[in-house]
Amino acid sequence: MSTIAPDYIAGRLTARDWYDLRDRLSADRTELWQEAFADYFEERLRLRYLHPIRLLQENGTFQGEGFSIVAIQCSLIEFLESTAKGTNYRYLRRGSVLGPFEYSSSKAVFVSFLTAHAPFSNAFDAASAEDFYEGVRCGLLHEARTKNGWRIWAKHGGDIVADPRNRIVYRDNFQEGLLTYIRNYGQRLLHDRELQAAFIRKFDSLCT
Asked: Rounded to whole angstroms, how far apart are CA atoms 54 and 34?
């Protein structure tokens, strides 16, 4: 008799594992939120996003792998911001209505992330973030190219993640910025009740 394989949501952890931890999170103990961040959030990111990006960085030839790296980064941005807000994407069919904590357009998610969190907020305002969304995110994911004059360079000698005026994204600096955000998010998650409630909403959704 065939069986259905479990849905793994973070490494070998399944939805059942998450529900068990979620029940214990109500105890409001810091070590449990450290476990949630490390075993579910961080491990999911490491295996699905961060490790693949590192492999491309370490084994690249500077002949085009930056497109793959930034495409993964764009996918990661949407997950990071929607997790912090506890929202989930829903394809909106004609006549349907979004429910609580749902969104149907990614543009606002990107603009929010790039303008609200350092070091990205040091480079982007609302207009340039929208330009990045259209020229980089949508260009890469829909047409496998950047558009509107945007270029991908490997790195900047300083800590600049992007130069919107000249439409350059520095993929390695951008990645360091994402890693900084993830570390900071992990610290905030231990004590921020709104982030915690959003985290639970997001992972509940991942398990359905």
From this structure: 24
Question: Using CA atoms, how far apart are residues 186 and 36, in angstroms rounded to an integer?
Answer: 10
Average pLDDT estimate for 119-127: 97
Are the C-beta atoms of residues 36 and 13 closer than 8 Å to each other? no
Q: Crossing angle of helices 15-25/193-206, nearest 10°?
A: 160
Tokens 């491990």 correspond to 43
Among residues 167, 19, 160, 146, which one has the least CA distance to residue 74? 146
Question: If you ran DSSP here, which 8-state letter would residue 121 be given?
Answer: G
pLDDT tens-digit map of 1-27 = 444 446 899 999 999 999 999 999 988
Q: Which of 9, 11, 33, 30 is nearest to 21 (CA)?
A: 33
